[in-house]
Amino acid sequence: MMQDWKQILIPYEQAVEELKVKFKSIRNECRRLDEYSPIEFVTGRVKKISSIIEKAKKRQVKLEDIEEKIEDIAGIRIMCQFVEDIDTVVGLIRDRNGKDLKIVEERDYITNIKESGYRSYHVIIRYTVHTAFGEREILSEIQIRTLAMNFWATIEHSLNYKFKQDLPKHVKIKLKNAAEAAFKLDKEMSEIRDDIMEAQEIFQAKSSLVHEILEKIQELYFWGNINNIEEIRQEFFKLHEEGNFNKLKQFNKKLDRLKEEYNVRTIL
Ligand code: 0O2
Ligand code: 0O2
Is residue 174 included in any domain, yes or no? Predict the structure, then answer.
């Protein structure tokens, strides 16, 4: 039986790994291009066998129907900074519909907040994995939420686990209040979204500029024959300390000129 479960879960494990890579790469590409990323971080898991059996029992799903009826055996969670980013991410998923995934259903628990106070956007997809034993199409649930929604859901989930779904009344009230606070936080963050995004973009741009400069100094150093490399390094340290973005940009251009100059000399 255990062996059967292992065999069943292999494509789900592969799907989670692949989907994590795909969504993480959206974030990584944006960062590399100094662009704002609608994705903050991504997690994924394959549901534990005991939880699958428990869910099947609760819903009176027969063992042979588990793969068609339990949609979140492969679960992906995408965290965003702002509620608006959720729409962007859902848009990205819709763009892929019929390409590397098929959307089965969307559940908007952001507009339709659950009784518990739970908010998130769920997209159920069909996803094909190519395993050693051939092609397999599996179901997967993608949950898209803000950091605040995630904070609340994680705590509520662990409390439910602790109290075995039977939350005492005072805990329930506190959780409802906390859900309201998380909702307000998201709203307030949205109001200053433009300022936050701008600050983050500047920070990101500055960090890649510094990276670029350091690489160029290293290149100039290794090409040798640059007698004022120490001077260049000192100049960089001074500018870095000063923290003026425009001056760093000018310095970067100066390094380009130096590199070009040196290249010309090498060619000649
Ligand atoms: P995994 O990759 O499955 O082990 P990478 O090195 O690129 O694979 P990444 O995404 O650069 O990993 O690391 P990141 O974003 O710093 O996240 C590290 C792990 O912490 C990931 O778990 C995140 O999903 C998880 N995490 C949990 N809470 C937070 C949070 O508030 N912020 C961030 N940034 N990460 C968080 P995994 O899925 O096990 O990664
Ligand atoms: P896990 O892995 O423990 O998170 P149902 O379970 O019947 O309410 P349904 O219709 O199967 O839900 O699917 P739905 O509501 O789209 O998604 C179920 C999943 O959403 C849950 O998975 C949770 O991850 C999350 N979720 C839904 N409601 C709540 C809630 O009130 N609080 C928290 N913390 N999470 C919620 P599981 O099965 O609990 O699995």
Answer: no
- How confident is the model at residue 266, as a pLDDT? 42
Ligand 2 pocket at CB < 6 A: 47, 55, 72, 75, 107, 114, 116, 118, 122, 153, 156-157
User: Per residue in 63-103, pLDDT tens?
Assistant: 899 999 999 999 999 999 999 999 999 999 999 999 999 99
Catalytic residue (one of 18, 71, 141, 156): 141
Same domain, 128 and 206: no
Residue 268 has pLDDT above 60, yes or no: no
152 Cα to the center of ligand 2, angstroms: 13
Structure tokens at 185: 């936080």
- The whole-angstrom separation of Cα 142 and Cα 167 is 27
Q: Residue 123 belongs to what H/E stretch? A: strand 121-131
CA 8 from centre of chain: 27
The whole-number pLDDT of residue 265 equals 47
Per residue in 19-74, pLDDT (tens digit) is 999 999 999 999 888 888 999 999 999 999 999 999 999 999 998 999 999 999 99
- The CATH number of whichever domain residue 109 belongs to comes to 3.30.460.10
Report how far residue 120's alpha carbon sits from residue 134's, in angstroms, rounded to the nearest whole number. Answer: 34
User: Can you tell me which atom of ligand 1 is nearest the CA of 27?
Assistant: 10
The whole domain housing 84 covers 2-168
* Shortest-distance Cα residue to atom 8 of ligand 2: 114
- The verdict on 109 and 228 lying in the same domain is no
Q: Which residue, 200, 198, 212, is CA-closest to 251?
A: 212
Q: How far is the CA of 249 from the centre of ligand 2 (A)?
A: 49
Residues 164 and 200 in one domain: no
141 is catalytic: yes
Closest ligand 2 atom to 153 CA:
34
Do 219 and 150 fall into the same domain? no
**Residue whose CA is at the smallest distance from ligand 1 atom 13:** 41
